[in-house]
Amino acid sequence: MPDSASWLLHQWVVAGIVSSTARFIPIPFVDDIVRDQCRRFVVSRTLSSHQRSDLLGELRPYYANSDGCVAGCLGLLAKAPLKILLFPLRKIVAMVTSIRGVPLEIMRTVLLGRTLDRYLERDEITLNSHNANQMRLAFDETFARMDFRVLRAALTDALSSVSGWKSAAIAVATRVAGQKETAEQDLQSDPKVDSGAKRITEVLDRPDTLELFAEFDRRFDEAIKQMDVR
User: Fold this and answer.
1) What is the distance between the alpha carbons of residues 2 and 137, in angstroms, rounded to a whole number?
2) Overall domain count for the chain
3) Distance CA 144, CA 140 (A)
4) pLDDT below 50 — which residues of the chain?
5) What pLDDT does 139 receive?
6) pTM of the model
7) Closest CA to 17 of 132, 173, 134
8) Which pLDDT score, from 0 to 100, does residue 99 have?
9) Spatial separation of the C-alpha atoms in residues 209 and 216, rounded to whole Å
């Protein structure tokens, strides 16, 4: 891969690792905040690499959990009592399913950046909030239907070879949660997180992984076409 592409992939992976460890922070709502911040970071970095940072607001439906401040705040208030009540159970489930959930969140974050990167390389495509919403729907549909079991196991093995990555990533995630929003320069990593990202990147550069991601691309593009027909 070209140096610029390798650098961007590293940024995606770091964001994915940090996002994946949000499940271990024992504070209500923080996991959702960290995931949103990390996904915004991925989109921001990717746009910046194409000199299109002006599109960050338009692409909010693609990366965020809500479609706007008012709707998001009202939704949060409505769900708050139930989320707080269920928080202990949700955390137990998150911990138990971390072996599956951590690599899946890393893959999701990387593919979020990769998919946007592909779109930005197509100069004929105009990106706006409507397209961003279609992209999000197609992304979620495609991701849910992919078989990532082999890659998931490989990512788990890669991280297991790096000592201290989890505690380092949790520290970064906790710091991210306290920020108003994550701009390009705000997701400052840690040497142990970077080491984990290097191991993950080696797995993502394997021929079988690239083939799997190419299949994701094909299914995603087909899902978008189907939405245009409807």
Assistant:
1) 30
2) 1
3) 6
4) 1-2, 67-78, 80, 82, 85-87, 89, 92-94, 96-97, 182-183
5) 97
6) 0.84
7) 173
8) 61
9) 11
Q: Kindly provide the b/e burial profile for residues 74-94, where b requires at least 16 CB atoms within 10 angstroms of the residue's own CB.
A: eeeeeeeeeeeeeeeeebeeb
> In angstroms, rounded to a whole number, what is the distance separating the alpha carbons of residues 22 and 27?
10
- Burial class of 44 by CB neighbour count within 10 A (0 to 12, 13 to 18, 19+): buried
What does DSSP assign to residue 187?
A: -
Residue where the block lists tokens 């899946």: 104
Contact present, 172 and 23 (Cβ < 8 Å):
no
Rounded Cα distance between 34 and 23, Å, is 9
DSSP state letter for 65: S
| Angle in degrees, 0-180, between the axes of helices 207-229 and 149-160, rounded to the nearest 10 | 130
- Within 8 A by CB and 6+ apart from 98, the residues are 23, 24
Q: Which residue is listed with tokens 């079988």?
A: 208
Exposed, middle or buried: residue 144 (CB in 10 Å: 0-12, 13-18, 19+)?
exposed
Between the alpha carbon of residue 212 and those of residues 147, 191, 203, the distances in Å are 9, 29, 12
User: What is residue 201's predicted lDDT score, i.e. its pLDDT?
Assistant: 97
Query: Could you tell me which residues come within 8 angstroms of residue 97 by beta carbon, excluding any fewer than 6 positions away?
Result: none
Radius of gyration for the alpha carbons in the chain, expressed in angstroms and rounded = 17
Asked whether the CA dihedral 33, 22, 178, 186 is positive or negative, the reply is: negative
Domain that holds residue 137: 4-229
Pairwise CA distance, residues 147 & 85, whole Å: 33
Q: Cβ–Cβ contacts within 10 Å for residue 206, how many?
A: 12
